[in-house]
Amino acid sequence: MILHRSNVYGVLGEFETPEELIHAAKAVHAAGYRRVDAYTPFPVEGLSEALGLRHTFVPALTLLGGLLGGLGGFFFQYWASAVAYPINVGGRPLNSWPAFIPVTFELTVLAASLFSVFGMLALNKLPQPHHPVFNVDRFLHASSDRFFLCIEARDPKFHLQETARLLHSLHAHYVNEVADD
Amino acid sequence: MSSGQPPLDSPEIQRLTPVLEAGHTYGSVTDKISAIVLTRPTSLGWFIGFGIAFSLTGLMTIAIGWLIIRGVGIWGINIPIGWGFAIVNFVWWIGIGHAGTLISAILFLLNQKWRTSINRFAEAMTLFAVACAGIFPLIHTGRPWMAYYMIPYPSTMGIWPQFRSPLIWDVFAVSTYGTVSLLFWFVGLIPDLATLRDRAVKRPAKIIYGIIAMGWRGSARHWDRYQSAYLLLAGLATPLVLSVHTVVSFDFAIAIVPGWHTTIFPPYFVAGAIYSGFAMVLTIAIPLRKVYGLEDFITMRHLDNMAKVMLATGLIVAYGYFIEFFMALYSGNKFDVFLVNQRLHGPYAPFYYALIVCNILTPQLLWSFKMRQNVVVLFIMSIVVNMGMWLERFVIVVISLTRDFVPSAWGRYSPTFWDWATFIGTIGMFIMLIFLFVRVLPAISIAEMRELVSETSEANK
């Protein structure tokens, strides 16, 4: 019996409902598996907790973007209007800050949104055209009506037969070995 | 209680309530929505509709081409009426473009489940409306190839844009709005593109959807970040959507022209924008659900709710008209009083009365439950409101400019063939883009519909 095969990415169990998946995820976590991911056709509430996922960095990145956009936008306008190209209009102040607020606001929102979306994609390592789970034929259903749980081979507790048996015992409808290529 | 309201346990009300008709599963919503794009044959009606819209887009291209050759003199604008159709149409389109992000962002934050089946095409509509809107100020500059002057860049002349000008604020507001709306729409599309990639039969479709889906696989870790980003975008887009028409109204309110220089403009412009936006969503939703048999997803509940939003924002707009009059009379400013007089009795008075009929009188029918349940009435009303909102911008721009402070600066304005060609051309471009969108992308968010199936099945347990 081969315990660790380098050409196996993991074992993929298929479930019919989000409830079954959450139940299985909790059981797998309780069994000590940590290199586990779930694949669902829509965000399932309570799944991240069941998998023991940590919080994301997307909000922090968004805040960073907002700060950069807001401060950068304001001081850029100040520099352009008061330093680089000052125009004296009837002695009015060059640093007419209330007039800079609309553009500052827009740039805050713009930068925060860009950081949020591209930060999310970067943290998710997308675009990533290929992933081992796509090798499983039934994985096509992950984008429509089935819920998958993948225990990865890099988990120290991973054992092809044992892990597959665990998924079977959790009422997975199909259990597939995922080839790594 | 309004007279037409039946008792709460009547079949009419029960039929009205769901945001998703019963009996749908994850598979069935996926099948039904993706089939419109993937397997349903393109109908003759689609080609005819697309052909007409495409021809009108051609007309727009010719009109803009001629404009670039000859200059803005081919339009009806003159001195003192320098703004004319270009600005009327710009404000009208950008107003229409408010509903999408409002539905996506504000209704999302307010946890309104009924937004789910209408948000996708409302967002698409927003993008297309913003695209149409963007054309007008660009070509109105007269030298559109110099439009990059409005963007701050380190030029050899050492000059910078005038950041104190509302026109520059407009550039930032509209381009930010366009960009954020695009991001919001695209983020919402990613899981659905993955669905299309997995369900596509033909190889080109698999490849194209596969590339745009970027390898999305619905991992729980990805969904975590995705939901976080989506929520943040909604939070960011909410003040943004309110800011855009506020900034557009500053274009007017900061000038001293009678009828423009008023503090009611920002809220009244935003309400008007939402009003016309919801009208346009209804104009699109009603034929869409009929043609593609989406009555299970876009239920009478959606149409009813949208009609109510229209009624509410229509009343805010009516209040705005009232305050304009009241402030003119109460302030006693003779130019403002004269302008009110001109609206009621001047050469453009028929437009003003038409505006009152379209925007204030007709929508009062929406108080009636029976009217809100009548799809034909809603469709006609949505078009009437769109016309009314266009007339509102015409009245604001043209009457004020034709009746300035001194009689020597008075004038008249009438649009030329090229004004109409450009305007109708943008409507054609808008319809053409809607046709393309419905054909190649899922018009309803499949992933969110599956979430709705999950929630409603839990609620039924």
Structural class designation of chain B: mainly alpha
The helix/strand series of chain A, from N terminus to C terminus, equals EHEHHHEHE
Note the gap between the termini of chain B.
Answer: 33 Å
The CATH class label of chain B is: Mainly Alpha
* Low-pLDDT stretches of chain A: none
How many domains, in number, for the residues of chain B?
A: 1
Rounded to the nearest angstrom, the radius of gyration of chain A is 25 Å
* Overall average pLDDT of chain A: 91
Number of helices of chain B: 17
For this structure, the quaternary state is: heterodimer
The percentage of residues in β strands of chain B lies in under 5%
CA distance, first residue to last residue of chain A = 21 Å
**Which outline of chain B best applies?**
globular
What is the H-and-E element order of chain B?
HHHHHHHHHHHHHHHHH
Instruction: Tell me the CATH topology of chain B.
Output: Formate dehydrogenase/DMSO reductase fold
Number of domains of chain A: 2
Mean pLDDT of chain B: 90
Largest interface, and how many residues on either side? Answer: A-B, 60 and 62 residues
Low-confidence stretches of chain B: none
**What characterizes the major β-sheet of chain B?**
none
Query: What's the total helix number of chain A?
Result: 5
